[in-house]
Amino acid sequence: MRLLASSLLITLTCRAVDVAARQTEIRVTGPLTGINMQTGAAPARMEISNMYAQGGPIWDLYVQALAELQAVDESNELSYFQIMGAQTLVSHALNISLRYLGDDAPVYRTSAEKLRVAYWDWASNATLPEVVTLDTLDVNSPTGPMTIRNPFHSYHFQNFPFTIRYMDAGILSTTDHTIRCPDAGGVDDVAAVFQNMETAHYQTSSFESPHNNVHNSVGCSNGTMYDLNWSAFDPVFMLHHANLDRLIAVWQAIYPDSKVFNITDFEDALYGTAAGNVSADTPLKPFYNQDGSFHTSNSVRNISTFGYTYPELQLSNAENAYVDPDDLADFVRLKVNSLYSGEPVSYSTARRPRSKRSLQSRRPPSRKTWSVAISVEKAELPLPATVGCYVDNSLVGKMALLAVPATGITHSTIPLDAALLAASLDLACEDDVTQYLDQKLRFEVQQGDGTPIQINSMPSLELVVQDQDFTPRQSDREFPTYGPTNRHPWKVGGG
User: Fold this and answer.
1) CATH 3.40.1190.20 fits 2-313, yes or no
2) How far apart are CA 77 and CA 72, in angstroms?
3) How many angstroms separate the first and last alpha carbons of the chain?
4) Where are the domains of the chain?
């Protein structure tokens, strides 16, 4: 629940430093340009690699606007240093577009109005986007072609050496820019980032676990993304969290009657907020709504409120402002299957069958699927940390635990089917699978610097092998179905 609430905050902005203390009422509305006045349809955020490959005016403006935002004096409340807001980025792009003259002027004006921050779809392609690794980028500026420092590569602190002591963070406190998996000399080790991304295994059952894995994979144990006190300064942070926002929006479209935040829970004090009950109506300070009240999780539920959408939510035939929720859910399931199932899909306009008889007659045979469920109370181990899951000495997945929040039970589920099939096991044979896992399944818990943590030092740690009946999807507009879970607790020290 903490992650979902914080992710909704990221829908509004990426960073806020001391805004509330200054009592400055900055109303978060999102960019309201480029919206179709007849239908209300908003421009879509684009995947960063696709945007880079496509290029053109909207890319030129994005690069220049981000560079200009990073150059704003750090004492300014709307600077990159203090608050990397989507509406602020677009305002810079609009100002830049006014500098283009001649035939270029109209297309750059229109592109600026439609510009939205990009996202990095690490769920589809778990590799670091090439564009964030380049030192420079070529753009068509108002004065013609030019090469500029790549603002997606890093952020350079303006007041370095630091005149204010923010926090002691080792190498992060001694470098003038954000870094990713730095070597001993503070130079980015891009190869290490790629290796981490390839081995992170993002097939889990929650938003939190892959979110945490990306932070750790991009930062390693000493990079900017790894330390949550610093992570928002890395330009990858916004791309990463925009994708998390996208995944939540996709989930909401598929399950329109469900809520991501539907309970009241007690939360410890965090970032100046006192401990107490938290619900979907708890004010998300210091983010002001358009009417001057504070945003809540409920007020930010609909992303169209903030003037943007995502490609997966854009029905190709959506000419009207109203879109039937069932039609949208069908379309989004199709897009999700296309992106993430690893199987081809057909973009036929035919709707999925609705009758129960039709569904049953077309239902494919079911099979078993295996996974391991992990849960632990974060207060029981030094943070940040990771729980690695190995089968026959091969890493099959990991659960990353970030430093914040420092308490609370974290859950993750790691699939085992690929490892079991690689060992030529019949997934339907429960005895063979469980006996194999008793011998070959093991877990390693480590601190961020690689120091081992004894598994038996965490009383709350629960490791459960589980199987379910799995029925493949019947059509491209449906998801697979799962039966009840059969649990096979894994004994610590016995696997």
Assistant:
1) no
2) 10
3) 31
4) 2-313, 367-489
What single-letter DSSP state applies at residue 63? Answer: H
Topology of domain 367-489 in CATH is Hemocyanin; Chain: A, domain 2 (2.60.310)
Per the structure block, which two tokens stand in for 122? 């690490």
Q: Is the pTM of this model over 0.70?
A: yes
DSSP notation for 195-251 = HHHHHS----SSSHHHHHHHHHHHHTTTSGGGSTTTGGGSHHHHHHHHHHHHHHHHH
Give me the helices (H) in 229-324, please: 235-254
Q: What is the largest CA-CA distance in the chain?
A: 74
The single-letter code of the amino acid at 71 is A
Closest CA to 151 of 67, 77, 248, 219: 67
- Look at residues 151, 340, 136 and name the one whose alpha carbon lies nearest to residue 237: 151
> How far apart, in whole angstroms, are the C-alpha atoms of residue 467 and residue 59?
46
State pLDDT tens for residues 92-149.
999 999 999 999 999 999 999 999 999 999 988 888 899 999 999 999 999 999 999 9
- 424 CB contacts (<8 Å, ≥6 apart)? none
